[in-house]
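FORM 7B: Structural annotation worksheet

SECTION A. Query
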Amino acid sequence: VQLVESGGGLVQPGGSLRLSCAASGFTFSWYHMSWYRQAPGKERELVATISNTDDNTHYADSVKGRFTISRDNAKNTVSLQMNSLKPEDTARYYCNARTTWGISYWGQGTQVTVSP
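SECTION B. Predicted structure
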């Protein structure tokens, strides 16, 4: 099982980044996919989730209207489009795959830094 995140980097406030997560080794379409983030000294928090079949989405209040999660079950990928980035979005972003019966996989993360 592998989840490999990419797309992180340094961006100025107000800028955009698109994170991608490539999944392999499991039946991607069975899994709800999420992005989490963890800033230094803080707990990991849920950013966005997309369901496995009907593409229902959920966002943290702090990113609503700025971030968009999407998935491509044919390519086994999940993406996070991040617009209007703020310094407080600075964190390491992790891709997560989970089933309703409790199986969960994590990627290694990709760093996003928002700074002038």
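SECTION C. Observations
Residues 67 and 114 are 14 Å apart (CA to CA). The longest strand covers residues 17-24.

SECTION D. Sign-off
Analyst initials: ____
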